[in-house]
Each structure stands twice: as C-alpha cells, then as structure tokens.
Amino acid sequence: MRNLSFYLTNLTNFLNFLFPFLIKIPSKSLPVQIETMVSLVSRTGRNLQRYEKGYRLVVGCIPYRYKKSQEPTSVEELEVLVISAQNGQEMLFPKGGWENDESMEEAAMRETEEEAGVIGVVGGKLGPWQYKSKRSSIMHESYMFPLLVQEELDSWPESKTRKRRWVSINEAREVCHNWWMRDALEELVRRRRLNPQAQS
C-alpha cells in the first residue's frame, strides 16, 4: 500500500511538472490519450504563484453566452456561468492564482477550464480589486476577464468537486457572494451596454 501511495504521489508530481510543456503543444499533434490526460489534470501547489507588493495575484473569467445565439444583441440576452465553491456553499466565477510561467490571460483561461470546464475567447481585462482571503490574512489583487464561451467540456479537472450553472445577470447578482466578483460583473454589463458588438 505504501508503494502505491508513493507511486501515485510521484505520478502526480511528474504530471504537474509536464503540464506547462504539454499545454503548449498543439492538441492535433498529441495522441488522444495524452490530450485527454492533460485536460483532466489541475495544477496544484503555489510554488509558481505570483506575488506583487505583498499581494497574491489572482485571475479568473466571467464566462458568458447569449441565450438565443452567439451574435451580440443586448445585455438582457446575456447569461453567465457560475460555479460552486469547493465547500459547496457559495456560487462564484472561476478564478485562481496567476503563475510565473504564463501570461495573465493564459492563467485566467486555465483556471476557467480547470474549474468550470469551458473554453472560449477572452476579452479585455477587468480590475484590479484588492481583498483579504477568507481562510487566511493573505491579501489578494484580482483581475477578471470576460470569456465568450465556445465549448463546454463534458469532463474537466474539477468536475467532481464543482457544479456549474448558467444564470441571468440578475440571478448572478444574487447568487455570487464575492463583492469584487459582483463589481467585475457590473463592469462587464457596463461595457456590453456601451458597445454591444465588442468582445468585451
């Protein structure tokens, strides 16, 4: 049993080491088995985590779509994707640590795929917001990106620990308990009203 535990720990560490290299390989050149394996592994640990002036840098996305079509119409046609927190008590938008080996946009898209299982096109940066972690006294500086969803995955790294749900803007305002995420949502809505044709 100890050997199995040792093997699994080393396999996980090895996959986490390979992950940054494998995601840069075009998926068409990977065998299907390896592509599937890579897509089902979440990054763990904070050894690559970015900090600036004492703040942990956090990025994420507000995944959105239009009810009737992918063509921009109005804010009323907008739906956003919320996910359950790991403790299952709250709904929020996908977010996580920005790491040293990726751009801000890459980190936001990675976190969104890992936590919400969606892929799409990112728009312009929203933020920053500063807040204190609920679990510790660490201060965070966070940025969000609008993400026009193009694909919903059937399985993703955190599919067993998180639920996802498409909601209206008004429902998102009610169910999302993080004040700074609600602020990011309002900024997205404001941008959509000013320029409905833009990719935010």
From TrEMBL:
Question: What GO terms are given for molecular function?
Answer: metal ion binding; pyrophosphatase activity
* Cofactor annotation: Mn(2+); Mg(2+)
User: Can the keyword Transcription be found in this entry's annotation?
Assistant: no
Please verify whether the record's keywords include Iron-sulfur: no
Gene Ontology CC terms, in alphabetical order: cytoplasm; nucleus
Q: Which keywords fit this entry according to its UniProt record?
A: Hydrolase, Magnesium, Manganese, Metal-binding
Q: Which residues constitute the signal peptide according to the record?
A: none
Which Pfam families did the record assign? NUDIX
The record places domain Nudix hydrolase at 54-189
Family of this protein:
Belongs to the Nudix hydrolase family.
Known PANTHER family for this protein?
A: DIPHOSPHOINOSITOL POLYPHOSPHATE PHOSPHOHYDROLASE, NUDIX HYDROLASE 4
Tell me what this protein is called: Nudix hydrolase domain-containing protein
Q: Which organism is it from?
A: Populus deltoides (Eastern poplar)
